[in-house]
Amino acid sequence: MEQLGENETNLNEFILEGFSYLAELQILLFFVFLVTYIFTLLGNMLIILLIKLNPSLQTPMYFFLVNLSFLEMCYTTSVVPQMLVHLLTDHKSISLTRCAAQMYAFAMLGLTECCLLAAMAYDRYVAICHPLHYTEIMNHQVCTQLAAAAWIICFLVQVAQTAWIFSLPFCGSKHIQHFFCDFLPVMKMACTDTYKNEILVMAVSIIFIMSPFLLIILSYICIISTILKLPSAKGRRKAFSTCSSHLMVVTLFFGTTLFTYLIPKSSYTPRSDQAISLMYTVVSPFLNPIIYTLRNKEVKGAFKKTVSRLLSVQNPTS
Q1: How many Cβ atoms are within 10 Å of 301's Cβ, its own excluded?
Q2: How far is residue 281's CA from residue 278's CA, in Å, rounded to a whole number?
Q3: Is 168 helix (H, G, I), strand (E, B) or coil?
């Protein structure tokens, strides 16, 4: 017992093994992830600027999209920069404090994204199923309250959950088979029973991942039912086009997230978990701006107008 206590006291950092098993391929991965990260930041900043600069995009849907784009930049930044550094170094250590901060930021932002995507689905439901009351129901105050509730509640929930996990005694091996401090890999380092912590992680996942997902499913059942009742094919296409980008983002994000946090522990393997985690920490934030620009006529139109205005300012005589 004395030796165990000494190990607990001395364990003040973890080693994130990450992609160490890929050896020389880590340099290639560094450049791939660096380019992806840069384009993720630029893409989401572009969406925020377009929405802020174009009055035609000052609607509830784009209000939530600004929140989502800002969140995506923070979300990927909580993981990728450290991963890039570790791809170039042999000593892939992270202190317990930094590990806790990373876990908190990543989890809080992930839960907030689930809630924001649900709010966006509700916005589309009201717009399509109750168009005459849309401006009354989805006014600025309601949108602000929904966004604020998502940020504040998830902020508070993750403070409690992360603090409880890092109150556990850690001992023995410091090596985590992951590229960032995620729940299951960190809890495996604890030298005590983590059953209650795992139950809490599952409960939070059900409340803040499954519940928004079910609300989104319910919203789209109503949306699709309403669209199918529209008399003209053109009207149906136009109505569905306003939802297609959001539906793709939801499928991409929730598909990987649900698979990660709701699979049985017996099915967990470090390398499969890393591959899935890359989808929602790197790939999804990278693809979302592309989805919202290439598949959204209003955003593409705003982009063309903004470029035209910039060109006319630079060439006033033309």
Answers
A1: 14
A2: 5
A3: coil
